[in-house]
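Is this the right way to post structure tokens for a design question? Let me know if I should format differently. Anyway, here goes:
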């Protein structure tokens, strides 16, 4: 095994021991781990069982084919996915099983036998993926074969002349360039006013909206070409699950970014909220009352409408990001550690999502979470001023 291979998935010296422990319990292969500040909690059997269970549920959230997957396959619980994080992430060793890749620049140079979910600034696929490919990025380039579907949220998508997607391709983008082959439909119904260049093969239909696709003479489209109405937000159970997964991924990426850049701020915030829970909650409730009253008076005066909008935006941002602190706190409590690592972040976000599935409980938890963070920000501001 060369040095590069070791850097990808074998950064921990005791990984083989952990994998054998997992296999001994019938839990399947343990996911490869990368550095990033995680505490070495997997040396015990209990922690390994907890982690495997949490990642199994997370795998269901990421890779479920339908909202009824639990009912359809109750006896077939998937093994935990491979989870790899690194700023410059290169997969140069064949992987088996579903894989989650999180990094700044992601390069896939060896075959992945399973579904892939990649989150990064750039994602480049140079080797086959024997499963579905899902990407959230600024730019993505496919130079090999994807055996399943290709779904994306990305500013720029480029499927080169040697890139092949055997099933459907769909997603949200501003620039889409196809030189390769798509085995079924290309659906860009979510891509408003996009720059679309078709210079390859589409074996199925091509759907677009609010765009003017540039279809070259060399392009080969077997099905129909149709402009469709922009998609409206749906309210089905499947779309609800998709929204929750996307929201969780956004929080995960933001949390990892904070950990890598200003770990001290997050650790201090979680510690303060935990040790002075009632004080921060009370401060948050008072702050919320002041913000609502100020916003109402500003709106009523007419001239203060911009102030109302600023206050509303501030509260919305706090509410959106508040689960980060709550989830990290939950993860620390589960693993009973003072340190914050990737395991604590993922488990905390997963548990937070599970306990907020109930609509009534969700409102209460989000309200308390927002009030706590709002109170913490208010107290920090008052101390500094």
């Amino acid at each position: 095994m060369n040095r590069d291979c070791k850097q990808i998935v074998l950064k921990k010296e005791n990984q083989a021991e952990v994998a054998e422990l997992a296999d001994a319990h019938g839990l399947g292969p343990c996911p490869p781990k990368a550095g990033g500040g995680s505490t070495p909690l997997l040396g015990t059997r209990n922690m390994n069982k907890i982690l495997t269970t949490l990642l199994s549920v997370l795998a269901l959230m990421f890779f479920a084919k339908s909202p009824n997957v639990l009912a359809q396959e109750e006896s077939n619980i998937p093994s935990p996915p491979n989870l790899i994080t690194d700023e410059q992430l290169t997969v140069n060793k064949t992987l088996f099983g579903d894989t989650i890749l999180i990094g700044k620049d992601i390069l896939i140079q060896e075959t992945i036998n399973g579904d892939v979910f990649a989150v990064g600034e750039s994602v480049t696929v140079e080797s086959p993926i024997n499963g579905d490919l899902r990407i959230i990025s600024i730019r993505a380039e496919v130079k090999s074969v994807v055996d399943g579907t290709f779904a994306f949220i990305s500013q720029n998508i480029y499927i080169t002349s040697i890139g092949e997607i055997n099933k459907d391709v769909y997603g949200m983008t501003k620039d889409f360039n196809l030189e390769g082959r798509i085995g079924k439909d290309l659906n860009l119904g979510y891509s408003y006013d996009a720059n679309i260049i078709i210079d390859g093969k589409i074996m199925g239909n091509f759907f677009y909206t609010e765009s003017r696709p540039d279809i070259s003479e060399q392009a080969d489209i077997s099905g129909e070409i149709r402009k469709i109405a922009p998609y409206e937000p749906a309210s089905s159970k499947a779309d609800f699950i998709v929204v929750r997964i996307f929201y969780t991924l956004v929080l995960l990426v933001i949390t990892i970014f904070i950990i890598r850049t200003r770990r001290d701020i997050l650790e201090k915030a979680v510690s303060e909220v935990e040790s002075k829970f009632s004080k921060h909650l009370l401060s948050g409730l008072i702050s919320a009352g002041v913000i609502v009253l100020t916003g109402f008076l500003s709106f009523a005066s007419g001239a203060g409408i911009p102030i109302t909008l600023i206050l509303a935006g501030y509260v919305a941002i706090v509410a959106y990001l508040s689960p980060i602190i709550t989830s990290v706190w939950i993860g620390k409590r589960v693993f009973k550690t003072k340190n914050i690592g990737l395991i604590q972040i993922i488990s905390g976000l997963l548990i937070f999502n599970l306990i907020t599935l109930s609509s009534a409980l969700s409102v209460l938890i989000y309200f308390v979470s927002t009030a706590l963070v709002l109170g913490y920000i208010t107290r920090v501001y008052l101390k500094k001023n």
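Format looks fine. Someone answered above. Worth noting: Residues 237-384 form one domain. The longest strand covers residues 82-91.
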